[in-house]
Design a protein that fits this description.
This protein is mainly α. The protein contains seven helices and no strands. Helix 1 packs parallel to helix 4, helix 4 runs antiparallel to helix 5 and helix 4 packs parallel to helix 6. The longest helix is centred in the middle third of the chain and has 19 residues. The radius of gyration is 15 Å and the shape is globular.
Protein backbone atom coordinates (compact mmCIF):
# COMPACT_ATOMS: atom_id res chain seq x y z
CA UNK A 1 0.00 0.00 0.00
CA UNK A 2 3.00 2.35 0.34
CA UNK A 3 5.17 3.60 -2.49
CA UNK A 4 8.16 5.89 -2.27
CA UNK A 5 7.08 9.06 -4.09
CA UNK A 6 10.39 10.88 -3.94
CA UNK A 7 13.70 10.99 -2.18
CA UNK A 8 15.37 14.24 -1.12
CA UNK A 9 18.76 14.49 0.52
CA UNK A 10 19.92 17.24 2.84
CA UNK A 11 22.67 19.45 1.48
CA UNK A 12 26.02 18.01 2.49
CA UNK A 13 28.99 19.99 3.75
CA UNK A 14 31.30 17.48 2.05
CA UNK A 15 32.97 18.51 -1.20
CA UNK A 16 32.86 14.87 -2.32
CA UNK A 17 29.06 14.81 -2.15
CA UNK A 18 28.71 18.13 -4.00
CA UNK A 19 30.84 16.64 -6.78
CA UNK A 20 28.72 13.48 -6.77
CA UNK A 21 25.65 15.67 -7.25
CA UNK A 22 27.36 17.37 -10.20
CA UNK A 23 28.34 13.94 -11.56
CA UNK A 24 24.67 12.89 -11.44
CA UNK A 25 23.74 15.97 -13.48
CA UNK A 26 26.47 15.13 -15.98
CA UNK A 27 25.07 11.61 -16.18
CA UNK A 28 21.62 12.97 -17.00
CA UNK A 29 22.82 15.29 -19.78
CA UNK A 30 20.41 13.72 -22.27
CA UNK A 31 17.46 15.13 -20.31
CA UNK A 32 18.86 18.48 -19.19
CA UNK A 33 21.89 19.23 -21.33
CA UNK A 34 25.29 20.07 -19.91
CA UNK A 35 24.54 23.47 -18.36
CA UNK A 36 23.25 22.05 -15.04
CA UNK A 37 26.43 19.96 -14.61
CA UNK A 38 28.63 22.92 -15.53
CA UNK A 39 26.86 25.09 -12.95
CA UNK A 40 27.12 22.37 -10.29
CA UNK A 41 30.85 21.82 -10.82
CA UNK A 42 31.43 25.59 -10.73
CA UNK A 43 29.37 25.84 -7.53
CA UNK A 44 31.37 23.04 -5.90
CA UNK A 45 34.62 24.73 -6.87
CA UNK A 46 33.49 28.11 -5.61
CA UNK A 47 31.96 27.12 -2.28
CA UNK A 48 34.50 27.60 0.53
CA UNK A 49 32.14 25.96 3.03
CA UNK A 50 32.55 22.53 1.41
CA UNK A 51 35.05 20.48 3.37
CA UNK A 52 37.00 17.24 3.43
CA UNK A 53 34.99 14.35 4.84
CA UNK A 54 37.20 11.34 4.23
CA UNK A 55 40.78 10.32 4.91
CA UNK A 56 42.46 11.03 1.59
CA UNK A 57 45.66 13.06 1.75
CA UNK A 58 45.11 16.58 0.34
CA UNK A 59 41.46 15.68 -0.16
CA UNK A 60 40.06 19.13 -0.95
CA UNK A 61 42.67 20.15 -3.56
CA UNK A 62 42.50 16.69 -5.14
CA UNK A 63 38.70 16.73 -5.36
CA UNK A 64 38.72 20.26 -6.73
CA UNK A 65 41.09 19.14 -9.48
CA UNK A 66 38.76 16.23 -10.26
CA UNK A 67 35.84 18.70 -10.41
CA UNK A 68 37.90 20.87 -12.76
CA UNK A 69 38.54 17.85 -14.99
CA UNK A 70 34.84 17.02 -15.11
CA UNK A 71 34.09 20.70 -15.75
CA UNK A 72 36.43 20.58 -18.75
CA UNK A 73 34.55 17.55 -20.12
CA UNK A 74 31.18 19.20 -19.46
CA UNK A 75 32.20 22.48 -21.06
CA UNK A 76 33.52 20.84 -24.22
CA UNK A 77 30.44 18.62 -24.48
CA UNK A 78 28.20 21.63 -23.83
CA UNK A 79 29.73 23.72 -26.60
CA UNK A 80 31.92 25.85 -24.33
CA UNK A 81 35.29 24.49 -25.42
CA UNK A 82 36.72 28.03 -25.44
CA UNK A 83 36.47 28.03 -21.62
CA UNK A 84 37.76 24.48 -21.09
CA UNK A 85 41.47 25.17 -21.73
CA UNK A 86 41.57 27.83 -19.01
CA UNK A 87 39.96 25.44 -16.52
CA UNK A 88 42.38 22.66 -17.50
CA UNK A 89 45.29 25.02 -16.87
CA UNK A 90 44.12 25.37 -13.24
CA UNK A 91 44.49 21.63 -12.52
CA UNK A 92 47.49 21.11 -10.24
CA UNK A 93 47.46 17.33 -9.71
CA UNK A 94 49.77 15.96 -12.45
CA UNK A 95 47.76 12.85 -13.40
CA UNK A 96 44.47 14.74 -13.61
CA UNK A 97 46.19 17.52 -15.57
CA UNK A 98 47.44 14.81 -17.94
CA UNK A 99 43.90 13.43 -18.25
CA UNK A 100 42.55 16.87 -19.12
CA UNK A 101 45.32 17.39 -21.65
CA UNK A 102 44.66 13.96 -23.19
CA UNK A 103 40.95 14.73 -23.42
CA UNK A 104 41.47 18.15 -25.01
CA UNK A 105 44.13 16.89 -27.43
CA UNK A 106 41.95 14.01 -28.56
CA UNK A 107 38.90 16.24 -28.95
CA UNK A 108 40.89 18.73 -31.01
CA UNK A 109 42.19 15.94 -33.27
CA UNK A 110 38.94 13.99 -33.64
CA UNK A 111 36.16 16.48 -32.99
CA UNK A 112 34.44 13.68 -31.05
CA UNK A 113 33.58 13.73 -27.35
CA UNK A 114 33.22 9.95 -27.41
CA UNK A 115 36.69 9.48 -28.90
CA UNK A 116 38.13 11.98 -26.44
CA UNK A 117 36.64 9.98 -23.55
CA UNK A 118 37.97 6.72 -25.02
CA UNK A 119 41.46 8.23 -25.27
CA UNK A 120 41.14 9.58 -21.73
CA UNK A 121 40.23 6.09 -20.52
CA UNK A 122 43.37 4.74 -22.19
CA UNK A 123 45.36 7.46 -20.43
CA UNK A 124 43.68 6.62 -17.09
CA UNK A 125 44.50 2.91 -17.46
CA UNK A 126 48.19 3.84 -17.79
CA UNK A 127 48.02 6.53 -15.07
CA UNK A 128 46.01 5.23 -12.11
CA UNK A 129 46.78 8.34 -10.04
CA UNK A 130 44.17 10.08 -12.20
CA UNK A 131 41.34 8.04 -10.70
CA UNK A 132 42.47 5.63 -7.98
CA UNK A 133 41.84 8.08 -5.13
CA UNK A 134 38.12 7.77 -5.94
CA UNK A 135 38.07 3.97 -6.09
CA UNK A 136 37.32 3.36 -2.41
CA UNK A 137 35.56 6.26 -0.76
CA UNK A 138 33.82 4.02 1.74
CA UNK A 139 31.23 1.30 1.30
CA UNK A 140 28.28 3.71 1.00
CA UNK A 141 29.76 5.43 -2.04
CA UNK A 142 30.27 4.19 -5.59
CA UNK A 143 33.46 2.53 -6.69
CA UNK A 144 35.51 4.08 -9.48
CA UNK A 145 37.49 2.60 -12.37
CA UNK A 146 39.54 4.07 -15.24
CA UNK A 147 36.54 4.06 -17.59
CA UNK A 148 34.59 6.17 -15.08
CA UNK A 149 36.98 9.13 -15.33
CA UNK A 150 35.43 10.37 -18.58
CA UNK A 151 31.84 9.11 -18.48
CA UNK A 152 30.57 10.18 -21.92
CA UNK A 153 30.60 7.06 -24.05
Amino acid sequence: PYTLASQTYDKSACLYHAIQDADALLGSWARGGFDPAIAAYQAALGDPALTACWTVKDEVPLLKDFARFRLVVSQVAGGQSDKAAAVAAEIAQPALKGAADAFLKSYKASGSIIQACRDTTTYAQANPAAWQFLADWGTANPTFAPEDLCPLK
